[in-house]
Design a protein that fits this description.
- The chain has 241 residues and is mainly α.
- The N and C termini lie far apart (69 Å).
- The accessory proteins ExbB and ExbD seem to form a complex with TonB.
- Involved in the TonB-dependent energy-dependent transport of various receptor-bound substrates. Protects ExbD from proteolytic degradation and functionally stabilizes TonB.
- This is Biopolymer transport protein ExbB.
Length: 241
């Protein structure tokens, strides 16, 4: 590209507002890519935990199942299993408070739901950045274009030269800001949609695991574990810690 045109020339010739818009767009792009990379790695890790969760039900007892889930502190499946165990033990050992008079099924459901809600909030953190970038970056770029066109037209009017070669350059340079805004917004929108789908997949597996945990702690069995035998009930685990 000719050195007289392009982003470098826009930056060199731009005023404070143009440079501020460009810096904002670059910062928004960096923030969105950081969120995309970090959250994508998190989803990959959570999906690995979900695969390991299938081995939990093929353990001799609950302690062995926890070992198969792993020792990672950020494993939502391990945390959910521990919360369910602690909820069951708490309900059976004390009845001093109002919430302890709840039915054991309701109490375990409440504790498991709290665990899922906490993970959901953690999984969705950062997505607001992508949503904000995707929705505002095009308009910020458009503002930079309008500002650039205005000043280009003012400069052309003051010079008294209105030929196409004198108009095309400044106007084309101003339009670069719109292109930059779109270049920032499109990855943010695509990344947001991909991360939402990934989180939904993990949450579906976590909800299914929580349902099985609830059945196990209440009845001592995991329900419907064999899809080839509808209604099948097995007891692969013992409740001993």
């Amino acid at each position: 590209m000719d050195s007289q045109f392009g982003i470098a020339h826009v930056w060199a010739q731009g005023d404070f507002v143009t440079k501020t818009v460009a810096v904002i767009l670059v910062a928004m792009s960096l923030a969105s890519w950081i969120v995309i990379v970090i959250k994508a790695l998190d989803i990959m890790r959570f999906k690995k935990y979900a695969r390991n969760a299938q081995d939990f039900w093929h353990s001799a007892d609950f302690a062995a199942g926890l070992n198969k889930l792993g020792e990672q502190g950020d494993n939502p499946f391990r945390q959910l299993a521990i919360e369910g165990r602690e909820a069951t033990a708490h309900h059976r050992k004390t009845a001093e408070h109002l919430h302890d008079s709840l039915d054991v099924s309701d109490w375990i459901t409440r504790c498991l739901r709290n665990g899922i809600d906490e993970f959901t909030a953690r999984a969705q953190s950062g997505l607001a950045v992508l949503a904000s970038v995707g929705s505002t970056a095009p308009f910020i770029g458009l503002f930079g274009t309008v500002w650039g066109i205005y000043h280009a037209l003012v400069a052309i009017g003051m010079s008294g030269q209105s030929s196409i070669d004198k108009v095309a350059g400044p106007i084309g340079e101003a339009l670069i800001m719109t292109a930059l805004g779109l270049a920032v917004a499109i990855p943010a929108v695509l990344g947001y949609n991909a991360l939402v789908r990934g989180n939904k997949s993990v949450l579906n597996r976590l909800n299914s695991f929580a349902h099985d945990l609830h059945a196990f702690f209440v009845t001592g069995t995991r329900l419907n574990v064999d899809t080839s035998k509808p209604g099948a009930v097995v007891t692969p685990l013992k409740k001993g810690a």
